Amino acid sequence: MTERTNWFCAEQLTDTIRRIWEPHVHRFFRANLFHVIGKDVDLIVDFGTGLAPLRPFLNIEIGKPVIALATHVHADHIGSFHEFEHRLGHAAEADGFAGMEDAVTLAHLFRQLSKGVEQKPAPSFEQDDYAILPAPLGRVLVENDTVDIGGPSYRVLHLPGHSPGSIGLLDEASGIFFSGDAIYDGTLVDDLPGCDKSAYLATMRRLRDLDISVAYGGHGAPMSRERMSTIAKAYLDAST
Ligand SMILES: [Zn+2]
Ligand SMILES: [Zn+2]
């Protein structure tokens, strides 16, 4: 079942995980974000473009703590990061989150699109004015850190290549894996400023062999372990 407002769409992936997206945003900037209902804490993974306020759409239980975790610093994933108080991201992009300069968020690429949105998020919307508000991290993550929401608990995987501080989150109990833009079922991007193809190759070797049950990527549909491995292998094969 798809839930819809005039800006966001959402679908239930499991009893406790919802995928949310912005259907009217240009497909290059139309990313997935996820709301995980934890036992003690809710976890939000990624934050869309910020063109419309995200937090009111999420219907978070009143008084329940929320952890906001960004998979990486690109504009299509962190526009509404600033709406949340407890912000987590990787150390390699900590300065990026604090400053939100175009050079790291690539927000200027959105401004340059011929038509960034199919319908305006608000009557006053002007594409030329698009900017991301700074959102300094409260907790800086590195490889192997744990993000615990009272069940489930996630291990942080540092997966550089698409961006220096790209991370994935793996729930080793269920095999559910949030992969950000490190890997998704679609055309992968390794030629933007900040991309590092040799780091990406190492990340792809790791993802090819990673034991998961399902991967929820920063774009596209969920991937089985086999599908994720196939995508990683195709990237590796194309690079040799
Ligand atoms: Zn990205
Ligand atoms: Zn993206």
From TrEMBL:
* ATP-binding keyword on record: no
One Gene Ontology term of the biological-process aspect is: antibiotic catabolic process
Keyword annotations from UniProtKB, A to Z: Hydrolase
Name the source's superkingdom: Bacteria
Domain Metallo-beta-lactamase positions: 30-219
What SUPFAM superfamilies does the entry give? Metallo-hydrolase/oxidoreductase
Which GO terms of the molecular function aspect are on file? hydrolase activity
- The chain's coiled-coil residues are none
Matching entries from InterPro entries are given as: Metallo-B-lactamas (IPR001279), NDM-1-like (IPR050855), RibonucZ/Hydroxyglut_hydro (IPR036866)
Q: What family does the Swiss-Prot or TrEMBL record give for this protein?
A: Belongs to the metallo-beta-lactamase superfamily. Class-B beta-lactamase family.
Put simply, this protein is called: MBL fold metallo-hydrolase
Q: Which organism is it from?
A: Phyllobacterium salinisoli
